[in-house]
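Our collaborator T.R. sent over the components below with a one-line note: 'Predict the complex.' Nothing else. No constraints on interfaces, no templates requested, no preferences about which chain binds where. So this is a plain run: every listed entity goes in together, and whatever single assembly comes back becomes the starting point for the next discussion.
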Amino acid sequence: MSRTLALALVLGAVAGPAAAQVATDREAVRLLSRAESLQARLERRDSLGRKQRYQERLARRFDAGDVTAILANSVGDATGHRVVAGASAFLSELGAIPPSFISSCVVVAYSATGKDSVLRAEGLIRRARIMADALSSPDTLADGAIVAVVIGRAYRESLDADWKAWLPEDVALVWTMKRDGAAAAQELMAGETDAGARCLAGDVARCRLWLGVDRDPTPYATRYRPAEIRRLLMKQFYGWGRVGGLPAECAAGSDRACLQVVDRGEWLSPVPASPRARAALVREVRALHGAATLRRALTDSSGSVGARLARAVGISEDSLIYEWRSWVLTGGGNARVAAGARDAMPALIFAGLLLLAAARSGRWR
Amino acid sequence: MYRQVLKAQWLAARLPVVLLALLGFALPLLIVTYGGSLENAPSDRVAQWLYAAEKIGTLIPGLALLVGLLLGIGAWAPDHAGKHVYALSLPVPRSMYVLLRFAAGGTLLAAPVVALGLGSLLAVEAIKLPVGVHAYPLQLTIRFALAALVCYAIFFSISIATKRAALVVLALICGAFLADLVLAVLSVSGSASVTTTAFYLLTNWPGPLSILMGRWALFDV
Amino acid sequence: MSNAIETFDLCYRAGKHFEIRDLGLKVREGSIYGFLGPNGSGKTTTIRLLLGMLKPVRGTITVLGRKVPEEMARIMAQTGYVPERPHLYPYLTLEQAVRYHAAFYEGFDMAYAGEMRRTFGLPLDQKLSHLSKGEMGKLHMLLVLAQRPKLLVLDEPTDGLDPVVRRDVLSALLDFCSQGSATVFISSHLVHELERICDWVGVLDNGKLVVELPMQSFKNGIKRIRLSGAPSLVGDTPFVVLQRETTGTEQVWVVRGWQPPMAQWFEGVGAAVKEVMDLDLEEGFVELLRSSRAPVS
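Returned assembly:
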């Protein structure tokens, strides 16, 4: 009996750990195989993901009017068409850029994969201007403004030096009276410079200086006062006066130093009016004299910017600038608070309809 | 008949009418008071002042809404108190009675409108405007009159509506919000929001509330 | 003679529990019609139906020969209405209220209104919100009588008024009636008051017109009869049995439409009439209502 018990104990002592070991091994094997299948799944998913990402980045052509764009697939059908249609709308609304120029361009998104193949396959490779830009986010692409601006920028680069220096980067493509016209008027009234303040007061010559429409070998000396240069630089660049050298001298009060430092053209625009205010002049010509006039002015390369615009319009420079001033200050010729027949009719009609509804009220039944 | 209804309505609503008229008179003057003297002021001060004028100007459609609310609801308040029994016992057709009430309340609208007009004229006289800045007292007053009329008509109709009509309107509004919720839950992209569309239709020309939108600055470029 | 007010098959439902059904009122021109009924029987509702303030489910209403609600404005031009609860604008003074009311009625008699105001002792410059209940009641009466209407519809005009004011109001009403041939439709639950002035009576109970007959017939026709030996089962009778009670060997019957020769009927069934007692209008009204709610089998 005791021998049997001892044997059982020994066997148990041996078998127990062995059995445990076997169980542990089995568990290990099970875990290993799980890990392996998990890894395989991850690799498969990665591969799928890579494939999907690749598909999304593939380049695709979109057309609307004269506008052609190569965008990534991820943009989607609807958005892609909306973008090119929007760009076409912007360009035709301004009407200043010739259709032949627009159709010579292809706007290409940087992130699109295989764009070269698409360009070749679609026969676009022969187009004169292939412009790459970071056109990837559907949100920023949405209304086509960015695509239109890329084309506008290219057009501006194709013009002569005077236009290149004066025209806003987007060639006034993205502009509304309500937002930009009001801002231009506010800028004029803000009176950051003497030229601007006197332009506001009605001095047309100062308006020309402020807009920078005349050719001027010393634009900073003519269009700005040294004190204005100092103030604008100190306002624009924090700690500018502590840079040392000419900036420090200018900040200390040296007018000569101020003129010298800006003459390099790095710190301050030679034109006091912002690109938006200059865009307002482009828009004024477009609004009052038509797209053809604007096109004519942009293709004119003789004389100052002011002279070209005036020539295209057919009036004197002073008259044109005065016209621009009135147009901007009166919000495009519209009285701001409107109370005409167009506003009154819906109000009166709805008041009448509501009165009719009240008269037929079933409240008393 | 009309004169008596007008008199009765004036007696019921004279306090709010006077208060609203005072407000209407004061708002344009507030713009001028804020601006102070613009003579020889630096040009950037002009821009700030115009900005402030525009902001104060946005109170004017709010005043139109308040005028419409108080006079529209007030037009029926005495009859509501008596459950319309007296009105129903009068020998006038129902629609005629509604017209009388509407006309009487509409006449009382003249007080805040005229007050705003006078305040605007006084404000224009009180300030020397810099070059490039114009005043629009007549346009502002006319627009305010139209806005007040629309608001008055809306609240007048709401005040006389039956419970059932009010429930229908409420159901429509709730339905619009519910539809938006469902669309959002179902992630139906590309579809316009019902409430946004409705708001757009109401507040853009030729919607009934379009008169309340837009710029309301007495002084502007 | 034509009817100033006539309804046919008039039905109206308010909520789940109240209904006016098959109402067929006939108010003769020139009469003073007392519209009796307990609280909640539908008197005010009926009046509002007659004046076009409520829409019936079915039925026709004709007032002063004109259809309701199609010709409501013309009807109200000749109708003076005093509602159950005062409804004039409380912020007006008495004078302003009179002028306001007068503006709507072409034939408004300002002189008569002034005379009545003095009679009632009402202050001209007092705001209506400061008038007492009695003064308000008098004012309402003043306004409707000064209109010189063809029809007066009065919904509990003396409810809540003290006896002196009630007397003044009713006197003014009777004076007015004596001057012309106006029809008066007056509702009340104060039976004894109507007894004095009305020549017709209609009793409404729970939305149903229980009876409509001349006041004299109503008053004289309801009797309490003490008798003995009456049979337990009763067939056709020449009168309407409203109530039967047994006390010992005797029975007490309350009947409507009684006339003295009908005593012979009791003899015919072997009963002996011990006493025939008159009931006043209020007692008769109570018995009538009792019987309409729990008819005698």
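Summary for T.R.: The beta strands of chain B are 134-135, 219-220.
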